[in-house]
Amino acid sequence: MYFKALTFTGCLYLILPLMLLLILSACGMASSSQRVGGPCAYKQYQGDAEIVSVTPAKGMTGEYEIRFSFHPQEKIQEEFARVEGKQWVLVRNDSSFPKKDFLQQYDIKKGNRFPCYMKVIIRGTCTPVLFDFPTIRNGRAQQPG
After folding, report:
1. Is residue 90 left, alpha or beta, with left meaning phi > 0 and alpha meaning psi from -120 to 50?
2. What would the 3-class secondary structure string for the chain be?
3. What is the spatial distance between Cα 68 and Cα 5, in angstroms, rounded to a whole number?
4. 90, 91, 107, 140: which sits with the fewest CB atoms below 10 Å from its CB?
């Protein structure tokens, strides 16, 4: 009888620490699923995107590379995001180049301007510069490669 009680107590001493370790490691795994760098915050600059060029995309049939420059309404404070002389590429939300129907739908051609917001990162490790086009659905920007 003494032997059975010792075995039960011994099992408790073995099982309880293992259960505690399992629970703590599960909690640690849940918190590690967060984005690296934590939440990001952006400062927004209002301005216009001026279409600089619309050319057929290299190696892509029926798709177009649309380059634009951003003209802010106020001075951009963050040095890394200053846009003088920079050109950006307008792509669809899935990163594909737009097709002719997209160009026609939004009247995208060289020299046209569209309202645009430049978003510059001020906290976190997400994409440093983003553009939002309120009048162009399914459009975003990326740096030319």
Report:
1. beta
2. CHHHHHHHHHHHHHHHHHHHHHHHHHHHHHHCCCCCCCCCEEEEEEEEEEEEEEEECCCCCCEEEEEEEEEECCCCCCHHHCCCCCCEEEEECCCCCCEHHHHHHCCCCCCCEEEEEEEEEEECCCCCEEEECCCCCCEEEECCC
3. 79
4. 107
**Nearest Cα to 50, choosing from 67, 63, 75, 65?**
67
Residue with tokens 């190696």: 59
What pLDDT, in 10s, does the model give residues 24-55? 344 444 444 444 556 899 999 999 999 999 99
**Residue 32 is which amino acid?**
S
| Residue 132 amino acid letter | D
- In angstroms, the CA 142 to CA 66 distance is 11
pTM: 0.68
- For residues 103 and 66, what is the distance between their CA atoms, to the nearest angstrom? 9
